[in-house]
Specification:
The structure holds two protein chains of two kinds. By secondary structure, chain A is α+β, with helices and mostly antiparallel strands. In chain A, about 45% of the residues lie in helices and about 15% in strands. Chain A has one domain (about 10-75). Chain A starts with a helix and ends in a 12-residue tail after the last strand. Chain A has helices spanning about 1-5, 15-30, 35-50; strands at about 60-65, 70-75. Chain A is built from three helices and two strands. Chain B is α/β, with parallel strands linked by helices. Chain B has a single domain (about 5-260), classed as 3-Layer(aba) Sandwich (Rossmann fold). Chain B is built from 14 helices and eight strands. Chain B has helices spanning about 15-30, 45-50, 60-65, 70-75, 100-110, 125-135, 145-160, 165, 185, 195-200, 215-220, 225-230, 235-245, 260-265, and strands at about 5-10, 35-40, 75, 85, 115-120, 135-140, 175-180, 205-210. Chain B has an eight-stranded mixed beta sheet with strand order 3-4-2-5-1-6-7-8, sandwiched between helices. In chain B, a hairpin with a 6-residue loop joins strand 3 and strand 4 (about 85). The longest helix of chain B has 14 residues, at about 15-30. Chain B is globular, with a radius of gyration of 18 Å. The chains are: A alpha+beta, B alpha/beta. Chain B: It comes from Gluconacetobacter dulcium. Chain B: Interacts with MinC and FtsZ. Chain B: Keywords: ATP-binding, Cell cycle, Cell division, Nucleotide-binding, Septation.
């Protein structure tokens, strides 16, 4: 069966399950404060940005992608269009 | 010295009640005095799996609240005189269990029995916490499936932090019981292997219970599988698990139904 599966290029699923669990549990064991971290970051980053430009709370997206070696913190801010002052003759 | 054992998992439906009944009966079959205690208040099922559902008069809540004596609530198994069951209440809710009341009942059970086996409800709430609180040992029932492994990891964390032993700075012996295991699917890479689960959870292996028709047959009949068919593959695995609980060192294998060459091929030592 397994050689037939690999012959037709279908990957086995158990190693995927193992790897996903290992990554997930490494983070879950590291501490339960992690989920609050994102919320705090979102709040504080927004505060700083607001000092300079006015942004809508809903236009800020913060995502965390947890990997084995590296985790990525993705901050996506939609800045409102700043219209250059058009001189009218 | 009596031992208090909790059978727990976090996730529901992985085989806690089945395993409580089978391990309890298997220990009783070796002559030990055993009581199995159902902590799943509101959703009791241990009585049904053990075939004692028509003999329940008083339950754990009645004893905890002082409405009945322990001896009145204990039901002696009709087939094994060394096995008793303390049922949960079906009508009350889990808030009726008080930590002091549970402590008193467990203490009294320790005096009467060699093994007190607590069948935990699913989840990580009050009921599950009370079931594990007094445990000296824990059996973590896990299916070779991602959500079950994740929940088991969470439960292991709780065993190490919220139990009485943990609070006193003592260790609680934790054992992994891998249930509904299909060695053929694991060999084909379709199911997490025993080694994978052991590596992730890193607690010692108590046994591997193969997926088997005998388990449903046993619960249909209201018998622990070790009583309904003692030579079946799951029963042999439970008997081996019980010997390990008693401190024996045995190689862990996946017992298979003895049918022929095909089964023999998959009966390999795995840990």
């Amino acid at each position: 069966m397994s050689f037939l599966a690999s012959f037709f290029g279908r990957k086995t699923s158990a190693p995927v399950a193992r790897d996903r669990l290992q990554i997930l549990l490494a983070h879950e064991r590291a501490g339960e404060g992690q989920s609050e971290l994102i919320a705090t970051l979102q709040e504080e980053i927004l505060e700083v940005i607001k000092r300079h430009i006015s942004v809508d709370q809903d236009k800020v997206q913060i995502k965390m992608d947890r990997g084995t070696g590296v985790s990525m913190l993705e901050i996506d801010i939609e800045v409102p269009e700043t219209r250059p002052a058009v001189k009218t003759a | 010295m009596a031992k208090v054992l909790v059978v727990t998992s976090g996730k529901g439906g992985v085989g806690k009640t089945t395993s409580t009944a089978a391990l309890g009966a298997a220990l009783a079959q070796t002559g030990k005095n055993v009581v199995v205690v159902d902590f799943d208040v509101g959703l009791r099922n241990l009585d049904l799996v053990m075939g004692a559902e028509r003999r329940v008069v008083f339950d754990l809540i009645n004893v905890v609240q002082g409405d009945a004596k322990l001896a009145q609530a204990l039901i002696r198994d009709k087939r094994l005189e060394t096995l008793s069951i303390l049922p949960a209440s079906q009508t009350r809710d889990k808030d009726a269990l008080t930590p002091e009341g549970v402590a008193r009942v467990i203490e009294e059970l320790r005096e009467k029995f060699d093994w007190v086996i607590c069948d935990s409800p699913a989840g990580i709430e009050r009921g599950a916490q009370l079931a594990m609180y007094h445990a000296d040992q824990a059996v973590v029932v896990t299916n070779p499936e991602v959500s079950s492994v994740r929940d088991s990891d969470r439960i292991i964390g709780m065993l190490d932090s919220t139990t009485e032993r943990a609070k006193k700075g003592e260790k609680i012996d934790k054992h992994l019981l891998l249930t509904r295991y299909d060695p053929a699917r694991a060999a084909r890479g379709e199911m997490l292997r025993t080694e994978d689960v052991l590596e992730i959870l890193s607690i010692p292996l108590l046994g591997i219970i193969p997926e088997s028709e005998e388990v449903l047959r046993a619960s249909n009949l209201g018998m622990p599988v070790t009583l309904s068919n003692p030579t079946s593959a799951p029963s042999r695995a439970y008997f081996e698990a019980v010997r390990r609980l008693e401190g024996e060192t045995l190689d862990v294998s996946v017992p298979t139904e003895r049918k022929g060459l095909f089964d023999w091929l998959f009966k390999r030592s795995v840990a």
